[in-house]
Design a protein that fits this description.
This protein has 178 residues and is α/β, with parallel strands linked by helices. It contains 4 helices and 10 strands. The mean pLDDT is 88.
Length: 178
């Protein structure tokens, strides 16, 4: 990823052991049974901005009562249609994925840009915009839902950088090979 900031572009995913990042109906409440913002505080401390897909943003709004207190810095939502009522805590972007990543990455400064959302992450991966992938594997089998990688994502080779366990959660870190 070429940019003037020194932070990385990181796809950040929570995943069930059977490969789902959201359950049926895009439910994500199962995540909070295992994780809080204190599970891996170093990830939050290293994050300066987040680029979020519109669907993930909407799921997050529905789950606001279960807010975990995660502060990932400035929030950017990539969408084809900004909402009628603006959210003062979010910058809505209607540009292409490369421009969205560049804007959010600049806002992250010397920290990481975190990519959230299945579609946005897949677009970033397909265009070679991602430096690392963090996967938090939770001890649950969902059986169905939203898969880690959508159909059509081409092969991407990864280099394992490490793993850490906190309670029942295992965090896997990979560098995207270019």
């Amino acid at each position: 990823m070429s940019d003037t900031s020194t932070g990385k572009v990181v796809v950040n995913r929570v995943m069930s052991l059977d490969g789902f990042i959201a359950g049926p109906g895009h439910t994500m409440d199962w995540i909070f049974e295992h994780m809080t913002s204190a599970t891996f505080p170093e990830v939050m401390a290293a994050t300066g901005a987040m680029l979020i897909g519109r669907g993930t943003y909407e799921v997050g709004k529905r789950m606001s009562a279960e807010n975990t207190g995660y502060d990932g810095g400035a929030r950017f939502v990539l969408t084809h249609r900004p909402p009628d009522e603006p959210d003062p805590e979010v910058t809505f972007l209607t540009c292409d994925i490369e421009e969205a990543v560049a804007r959010a990455h600049r806002a992250a400064g010397d920290k990481n840009l975190e990519i959230l959302g299945a579609d946005v992450a897949a677009q970033c991966l397909q265009r070679g915009l991602v430096d690392e992938i963090l996967v938090y594997v939770l001890p649950v089998l969902l059986g169905e839902g939203v898969r880690f990688a959508p159909p059509g994502l081409h092969r991407i080779d990864l280099e394992p950088l490490g793993n850490v366990q906190s309670g029942g959660v295992t965090m896997l870190r990979f560098r995207v090979r270019t």
